[in-house]
From TrEMBL:
Encoding gene, per UniProt annotation: glyS
NCBIfam families: glyS (TIGR00211)
One annotated GO molecular function: glycine-tRNA ligase activity
Family to which this protein belongs: Belongs to the class-II aminoacyl-tRNA synthetase family.
Localisation per UniProt entry: Cytoplasm
Protein name: Glycine--tRNA ligase beta subunit
EC number(s) stated in the UniProt entry for this protein: 6.1.1.14
Amino acid sequence: MEFIFEIGCEELPARFVPAALDQLRDLFTEAAADARLTHGAIRTMGTPRRLTLLIDELSEAQADLSEERTGPPLKAAYRDGQPTKAAEGFARGQGVTLEDLYTVETDKGEYIAAKVFEKGQPATEILPTLLEGILAKLNFPKSMRWADLSLSFARPVRWIVAVAGGELVKMSFAGVQSQTQTYGHRFAAPGAIDVASISGYLNDLRAADVEPDPAARKATIEVALKEHAEAIGARVIDDPELVEEVTYLVEKPFAVTLPFSEAYLELPPEVLISSMRSHQRYFALENPDGSGLMAACVIIYNTPVRDPELVAKGNLRVLKARLDDARFFWDRDLKTPLADRVAELERVVWLAKIGTMKERTERIGELAGRVGKTLGLEGQSLDDAARAGLLSKADLVTQLVFEFTDLQGVMGRAYALKSGENEAVAQAIYDQYLPKGADEELPGSEVGASVAIAEKLDAIVGCFGIGLVPSSNADPYGLRRAALGVIRILDAAGFHVTLDQLIDQAIATYQAKNPGVLNDDTASLAGAVKAFLVTRLDYLLRDAAPTDVVNAVLAAGVTDIPSVRGRVKALASLRDQADFEPLAIGFKRVVNILAKQAAELDEAPPTNPELFEEDAEKALFDAFSTTRQTVEAALATSDWQKACDALIGLKSPVDRFFDDVMVMTDDTALRQNRLALLSGLRDLFFGVADISKIQA
């Protein structure tokens, strides 16, 4: 039978709807399995006013249950041949008599058991409790209560449709009883619509100016945007996130083109786009060749009207007010050079325990210079990095950024150019916020990379230094994103600098500029920050290689990020060779032996070939010495594949060594000499990876 379930409510925030539909599907799937209800494919649909679940085929009754259930141990169930309370309770719980119990043999001994049979109940008797449970479990970023109800939901629930096989499923939630009627568009067709079948439900809603399918609404929006743009010789600026948001803001999309005065094109394009996008959800248009914005945008609206031009005129008044404000702020901000605004940052607190935003920019400027020098900058480029760091947050006190917070960095770049700063400085002010996400744009220059790394490390070290460490479910200062940004910049640009060096520079900058702010144990702080960065690196590498390969490389130590990437790639290819697994097993023996004999190894002198007695240990030493030369030469040129290929050649001498040589001999000198040989072998491998971490 068909099943239709719809929750109608006041308008939901657009971002709530997709996640709620996913939950609705998953919760029903889980609940139906627990209730022994079989079903076909589940479809979910949603608009701002409704969350819908549709199933073309749902079983009319539960499947019968027939299973053997095990109870308490036999010795606990019976004493002197008489049933105990444990046996009686088990029988009662399974709905059987004591005579129905029998004994079964398990891995843990003898237990009593019972065969249980339950006749499947009609689905209509199961669904009410099932559906009420699902609604109670739906989770939203923010929920609310209304009237005097104890239950909460994202927005007040106004109606519930629950129809199975054309019949009403009686249930209630938040004081609302289920019914067989839904409602059309709030303004265009607000009347009740009878629901009996899925096809009727969909067709009737569409006739009432509601498109329940988000995919269909999205496709309609994309077509309308393209058609309206092409009609005036333009193209829509690609903005999939805005398309997704608008899809869940309307029940049925309509579009109109909104032209505005070309005088506004004097504003930076980012200001125009932000004015249209962030505040009004309008789609900006550009010239077909991408050479610049056009003085027009496309609006997607929700209610059918007789004259779309009236919609355009009303929205133009709103947009014009926003653009007039932006132009006023722009003109006023330009009266003060960007560098003069640094002093104003003294009144902006960054973190109470650390200090002001002015102190932060001074640190970023200092650190950007240190990082830049480490990355190889010199001369004017080095000066540009330090200058951009000093000016990095100056746009935060401009009126445009105060009004349009998403333009920080963007306006810093624009104001820097207007203030006479050179192009490299201006671009680096923008680059400090890059990358903004896991796959987002990276800084385009070494100057920009220096400032971006400095900005992020200053935040991470500062927060860790005063105990503001991200928890498993909270990261209010975006430190994980910052750490991933540092890793991605170093990785993509191939900067062969160590994390230790960069972290030490950040800590040293705090000590020089703001002594006493960080906790006194700088060694522990550096270790915690490095571990945090390595965790982000681990996360980044998960898509590049198997988990155990990544673990093996990271366990050997993290120096510079590009080398880690190269080692992971080389080790992943080496793993497929026939000799690799036996070598990994042998190496694990090496690591285990050395771990147990760490104290004696500390006292052992360097390996002395004169002390070797067995041919196998001599052969291993000769192979190790030859391989070490090859590996060290390969490591010096970052030829990780060549290093790995050389290491695989040690498989046979390692196997022979463990077959023929007793490491832990009673002869102290001989034992320590063999331990020293194994230690050298381990250290050679650790230049690439700790392959003992590889799963056999």
